[in-house]
Amino acid sequence: MTSETVLYEVEDNIATVTLNRPERLNALNDDMIVELYDVMQRADKDREATVIILTGAGRGFCAGGDIQGFNNLVPEQLIVKNPTPFNMNIRADYQTRHAYLPSIRKPVIGMVNGPAAGLGLLYALGCDVRFAADSALFTTAFAKRGLGAEFGMSWLLPKVVGHANAMDLLLSARTIDADEAMRLGLVNNIFTPDSLRAETLAYAREMVTWCSPTSMRHIKQQTWDTPFQSLQESVRDANQIMLETNRSADFTEGTASFREKRAPNFPPID
Q: Shortest CA distance to 141 belongs to which of 111, 171, 165?
């Protein structure tokens, strides 16, 4: 698949997915939305990729939905259109049109290099870890456009910043800077624009070097499943995973590398 609006590259087992409409601050239109889904599925299946970075080209991460690019989208598509047929092996909650990033088995790091607004903020929230340039700006935007909190924003945002902070950001639609985003827990760390890429890659390389892809897959799924579980259900699932992983080649290699004081050599996941 060749795409001009979503770029894909893999180096050192790190896949970088780049939204590539810099002249529109990477605002999403219908074609780009489908292309992004396809590229993320490609990254998920790529045996050469252990960790995925999602970022934007130019000076923006994603300015949200391109209103001009949604002219042909009818209301029925907004409600039911998914990029792929329903998959019984994936939680239905994470098969919706824009909230599927939690279903990607590999860690997804959001490298927020500039403004993240509306739908763009939603995609950032779907990442597992978020690093931002100290010049980045964030806004939900919806209330200032006469819209509701779209595509699960009212579910995802409170999970990240808490109910009170989410209500503030949603109802006021105010723009916050990277420092405030850091205080709210919206991003994990902030860096200068010149150092953001290097710092994000360094973090990703640490994961690639030291962490089992299978373990990261389990941990990611466990954490995203938690909002739908009781503590008892979470412990039950953790116990089952413990039984599986304790007998795995990754556990054998992880303990051996620890004893031998060397980097582990974990196999990729299929």
A: 171
Highest averaged pLDDT of the listed ranges 27-31, 78-82, 121-125: 121-125
Give me the residue spans of the domains in the chain.
Answer: 6-207, 212-259
The span from the CA of 270 to the CA of 258, in Å, is: 25
Q: What span, in angstroms and rounded, lies between the C-alpha atoms of 79 and 57?
A: 29
Beta carbons of 200 and 131 less than 8 angstroms apart:
yes
Residue type, 49: A
Residue 60: which region, alpha, beta or left (left: phi > 0; alpha: psi -120 to 50)? beta
The model's pTM is 0.90
The one-letter amino acid code at 67 reads I
Q: How many CB atoms lie within 10 A of CB 262?
A: 9
| C-alpha to C-alpha distance for 126 and 102, rounded to whole angstroms | 6
CATH class of the domain comprising 6-207:
alpha beta
Where on the phi/psi map is residue 150: left (φ > 0), alpha (ψ -120 to 50), or beta?
A: beta
pLDDT digits (tens, 9 = 90+) for 30-86: 889 989 999 999 999 999 999 999 999 999 999 988 776 555 555 444 443 455 556
Strands of the sheet containing 176-177, edge to edge, are 116-117, 137-139, 176-177
What's the number of CA atoms in the CB half-sphere (13 Å) around residue 172? 11
